[in-house]
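Recall that a protein's primary structure is simply its ordered list of amino acids. Everything else, from secondary elements to tertiary packing, is in principle encoded there. The following example makes that idea concrete.
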Amino acid sequence: MDGRRKQTPLTIALALAVALPLATPTATRAQGQEASRRFRVLVPNLEPQGEVDKKFGEKVAGQLRELIDQLATHQAVDDKEVKQALRKFKLKEEDLNCIRARQLATQIDTELVMCGEYKAGGAGVEVSARFVSARTGEEFKIDAFPVGMSETDKAAQHIGSEFGKYVDQLRYVAFCSDYLASQQWENAMTACDRAISLNPESITARYSRAQALWKLERNEEALAEVRKVLEVNPIHESGLQMAGYLSAVLGNDEDARKYYSEYLELQPTDAAVRMKIAYDLAQAGDPVGAAGLIEEGLKLDSTDVRLHEQLGNFAMSAAAKIAEQAGGVDGNAPPPEAIELFQKALSAYGRVYAQKGKEIDPAILRNMIAANMSIRENNLAVELAKQAIQTHRDQAQLWSYYADALQKIGRLQDAIAALDSAAARDAEYPNISVRKGKWLLDEGRVNEALPAFREALKRNEQPGDVLAQLLIAHGHQTGVTTKNFAYAIRTFEQAGEFAEQQKTKEMLNFWLAYALYQSSVQQQEPQTVESAKKTLPQFQRALGLFENSRNYAASQPSINLAQFINAAKTYIEIQEAIIKRAG
């Protein structure tokens, strides 16, 4: 082409044989492997387009084969071998277009194919060519260039010179892959960038570059790179998978589902592939999309129990995620879309249970019980749990779920007995005593909850501060908010047994002081000597507790501690005055 230095065959051969300057142990190893075997190149005659002399294409091809044979790294397939292969497959030499040449290359253990054509143009002909990987179909294109009809050597040298760039590009792609394998992400990026500069449409280089970007956690750049791969090859399987995963990680759920669906269109009936893709999508943060992919698979084969199990798992995960975002499954009823997904999970699991019976994975039974409780079908949860423990009596978790379901329908003693059964099957089962204490506390049975909390502390189920905070919360909810201050005082004093950290003690000090103060305000109303003598020590105790809760009060914007302290002091002065007047 214009402005390029003319190269002799010897110059080209030397240029192609020179190793590239990437001196690392892995790169050197790749070079050694490449040098140990010359790669084969199939060079059919260039195809004439229109009314032009076909001898031109034959001469250029022959001269190009000679140039390639001078290389240390590549060799042209011998003309005799090509003719033998053509006879074997009943083809004529003039029938050897690019598609057939690539097909033939795969049959004769050849890596590369040169596809060229020429047509009349200007004072001679216009030549265009490309090198194609027989295995992957990846192309290295050579821009069309003009030569005279007699300048076959010039045409061959130009194609040979461009082939040198292609060889360089292939080397850099190999280095990039080698760096990826050794987890040298930055070096892989450098090698891939060099390869792309030589061939911007190299799918292999761009996909490898996307992998390196992904490993460097540059997900947006990785997605942009893999999209370029898909622009060149829309059915690049690994590219579709990576684009789907990265889209999901970046929160583009709709794009993720589109890419994964396009990938699955290539293998629609392969359930194992579908489940793997759905799992990747769920792991990337889109269980709803994962469930959708499995449902598409069930349309093709509704009898595959593996797909029903996966649908249950993904629907369950998606429902729990939606419910949690809306405030949690243990608070208000989950939103309608979560309820629909819980029901979908139950339906899918039901198909699995019907087929597997007692051989079913206990985890599925636990999910079914939990799903029923999540949609407030607690009686169904109890019946299912009862059925499950009949066939899986040694499963401590099933007894635990049974206990939860019983507690939700008000059968507290049966629930506690079920917890004991769980502990009997697994002495290390977590939070048995804490749950007993919490359930008893919710029923207002504080004196029975305390021994359970003491046992929980002994078993190291929870720190003492957690138990103290449960009692504080109960005292506030049941005593303070209902103005049953005597109950609140008693509960807060019992919480003091478990408080360990200063922060928890200060919280307890404030609320105990608050309950004592409010209770004393009510009791001092007669303003008699008797009421003054009774409430004076209570106000004094409340004042001391208020003083010892300053850090906690300062952390709560709604608490004006100075106001409570001043009020307590005022009431103390009043009670002291009443007592003094009485003599």
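The CA atoms of residues 86 and 359 lie 59 Å apart. The two ends are 121 Å apart (CA to CA).
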